[in-house]
Design a protein that fits this description.
Largest sheet: 2 strands, antiparallel
CATH class of the largest domain: Mainly Alpha
Strand order of the largest sheet: 1-2
Number of domains: 2
Distance between the termini: 22 Å
Number of strands: 2
CATH superfamily of the largest domain: Farnesyl Diphosphate Synthase
CATH topology of the largest domain: Farnesyl Diphosphate Synthase
Shape: globular
Strand content: under 5%
Order of helices and strands: HHHHEEHHHHHHHHHHHH
Length: 324
């Protein structure tokens, strides 16, 4: 069963979910955000991990849907905090309705995610709920750290990696651990798959940071240099500040808080020039490679035949736009 078939199964399952009807203002925003699409990577990872142990993944579809509903709950609340006007090219929920509605609809999505997990086999349910609850708390911790960093003058690279691990990577790791554990994987295999997911998640976020500065706007799908314009403390910025000469630090800091649209291109160009002088692109690419190789080492350690891991490995390569 290949990825398009599994993706269709996920879409079909999500289309049948019932969140509630009245009040309309509470439930319509949930249907709206869930209909906006997205790659559905996390539920796909649940199914791919499950399929490594059992070809029949029908009884894993609702738990996989739970992960996607939870992910979209986090996006809904993140958009409020970020004051984001668009999500997947459409109005965000708080823009289309209002922030109070978005908060409450998000709360219901979290509740529904838990309900979707209740069909897990009784002997596995307590552990699944424990792992999910821990992951959900970690995602919130990561979001809080991200907001804290906006107010702090100094952030270390280690702190940044910890933040993106919590905010982005742990849900990827949980998705893989969930699918494997539901199909009887050993604790060691489930842990290796979780670590594989965590490292892939970190690598993917670092790649996103890199593409924000060096990506092709048409392929990247959003404004190149957006992180520089918003003074975001990414891996690239933090590495540059750590290695910059006094003059280079002065250049970076003089552009901080410069939000005039008329000089936006000049700001991106000036900061990128510092990155170029310090070989920040190459250093970021090396970090991405290091985390990617850590991920593959954990996948290699999973005790199933190589052909059972091939689709998951192929998806990881595809997400990182790698050939091998």
């Amino acid at each position: 069963m290949d990825i398009p078939i599994l993706t269709d199964k996920i879409k079909q399952t999500l289309s049948t979910l019932q969140y509630g009807d009245k009040p309309v203002e509470l439930y319509e925003p949930i249907r709206y955000i869930m209909a906006l699409g997205g790659k559905r990577i996390r539920p796909l990872l649940v199914l791919l991990a499950a399929k490594m142990y059992d070809d029949d993944v029908e009884n894993v579809l609702l738990p996989a849907a739970a992960v996607e509903v939870f992910h979209n709950f986090t996006l809904l609340h993140d958009d409020i905090m970020d004051k984001a006007p668009l999500r997947r090219g459409q109005q965000t929920v708080h823009e289309k309705w209002n922030a109070n509605i978005a908060i409450l609809s998000g709360d219901v999505m979290l509740v529904r995610a838990y309900q979707l997990l209740l069909g897990v086999a009784p002997d596995k349910l307590a552990q699944v709920l424990q792992n999910f609850s821990e992951t959900a708390a970690q995602v919130c911790e990561g979001q809080q750290l991200d907001m804290n960093f906006e107010q702090r003058e100094e952030v270390t690279i280690e702190e940044y990696i910890h933040m993106i691990t919590l905010k982005t990577a742990v849900l990827v790791g949980f998705s893989l651990e969930l699918g494997a554990s539901l199909k009887g994987a050993t604790a060691a295999d489930a842990d290796h798959l979780r670590q594989f997911g965590n490292n892939i998640g970190i690598a993917f976020q670092l790649r996103d940071d890199l593409l924000d500065v060096y990506g092709d706007k048409a392929k990247f799908g959003k404004q190149v240099g957006g992180d520089i314009l918003s003074d975001k403390k990414t891996f690239l910025m933090l590495t540059a500040l750590q290695q910059a000469s006094q003059e280079q630090q002065r250049i970076i800091r003089q552009w901080r808080n410069q939000t005039n649209e008329a000089i936006a291109a000049e700001k991106v160009q000036a900061v990128t020039a510092v990155y170029d002088a310090l070989n920040i692109r190459q250093q970021t690419e090396q970090q991405i490679e290091d985390y990617f190789q850590k991920a593959l080492a954990h996948l290699d350690a999973v005790a199933v035949p190589g052909e059972k891991k091939a689709t998951l490995r192929g998806l990881a390569l595809q997400l990182m736009e790698r050939d091998s």
